[in-house]
């Protein structure tokens, strides 16, 4: 059977630094794969290479349902159903919230006018982003709602695979709980999710499997309960015992 989503020998260097180093991985349809690793271990770069936003790999392949996508344009990849969110609140600050969603819907879904607006409303309702914020400039939203807007913008593109880059960073307890519940809900709706997160209780609480990166290379991949006990993982996070 054709694997759902495969990464084969993916690499990206910046000068002499190997940010992602010969990484191979298979993702099952419907799973939530958590991605952990120390700062600078290549997690966000991996998302960049998959989505081509803003750059693709130096070498290696990304295969979605049997089709190599690493040479496709970023918008084509999104149109095929692979959509990301960003670590920072990547909203168009001067645009209204709804225009942020509509830009994405137009580019990925090719929808305009009433159809695009209907999609924006539906995505807002799915995520729980208040429709009465739609006409406020995105820059005026508190961080929590900017995060919600970014997730809404992604959901409006009807992803098959949703790549979430630290959706809970800068959030407080109740807000982190909201992120947890939202990830579970989107996954239950059928989205396969790759989740980068530094908040370990959230990451281990929602993920079915965990991938741990160090210097662009996987040091562990497997069931959460096994990976969190793996000595190489403990060392990567806590340092070598003296
Ligand atoms: N555009 C770039 N130009 C140069 N170096 C880069 C670039 N993007 C990332 N890097 C470097 O590649 C390495 C991996 O960065 P990346 O952002 O993928 O790590 P990360 O695991 O997501 O880190 P964090 O948890 O801090 O977000 C780091 O050393 C980083 O400085």
List keywords for this structure.
242 residues, 6-stranded mixed beta sheet, 4-stranded antiparallel beta sheet, 10 strands, globular
Brief synopsis:
The chain is an alpha/beta fold and 242 residues long. 38% of the residues lie in helices and 25% in strands. The chain contains 9 helices and 10 strands.
Basic shape: globular
Strand numbers in spatial order across the main sheet? 6-7-8-3-9-10
Largest sheet: 6 strands, mixed
- The end-to-end distance, rounded to whole angstroms, is 48 Å
Structural class by sheet pairing and helices: alpha/beta
User: What is the number of helical segments per DSSP (H or I, 4+ residues)?
Assistant: 9
Average pLDDT reading: 94
- Unreliable stretches (pLDDT < 50, length at least 5) are none
Helix amount? 25-40%
By DSSP, the count of extended strands is 10
């Amino acid at each position: 059977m054709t694997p759902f989503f495969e990464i084969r020998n993916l690499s990206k260097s910046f000068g002499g630094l190997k940010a992602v180093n010969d990484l191979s991985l298979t993702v099952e349809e419907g799973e939530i794969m958590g991605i952990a690793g120390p700062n600078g271990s290549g997690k966000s770069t991996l998302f960049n290479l998959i989505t081509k936003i803003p750059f693709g790999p130096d070498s290696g392949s990304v295969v979605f349902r049997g089709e190599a996508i690493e040479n496709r344009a970023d918008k084509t990849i999104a149109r095929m159903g692979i959509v990301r969110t960003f670590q920072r609140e990547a909203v168009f600050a001067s645009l209204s919230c709804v225009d942020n969603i509509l830009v994405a819907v137009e580019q990925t879904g090719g929808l305009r006018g009433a159809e695009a607006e209907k999609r924006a409303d539906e995505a807002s309702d799915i995520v729980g982003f208040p429709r009465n914020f739609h006409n406020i400039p995105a820059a005026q939203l508190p961080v929590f709602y900017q995060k919600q807007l970014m997730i809404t913008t992604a959901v409006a593109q009807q992803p098959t695979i949703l790549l979430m880059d630290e959706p809970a960073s800068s959030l407080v307890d109740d807000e982190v709980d909201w992120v947890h519940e939202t990830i579970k809900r989107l996954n239950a709706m059928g989205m396969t999710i790759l989740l980068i997160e530094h908040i370990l209780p959230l990451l281990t609480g929602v993920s079915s499997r965990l991938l741990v990166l160090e210097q662009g290379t996987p040091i562990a991949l497997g069931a959460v309960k096994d990976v969190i006990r793996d000595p190489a993982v403990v060392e990567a996070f806590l340092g070598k015992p003296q």
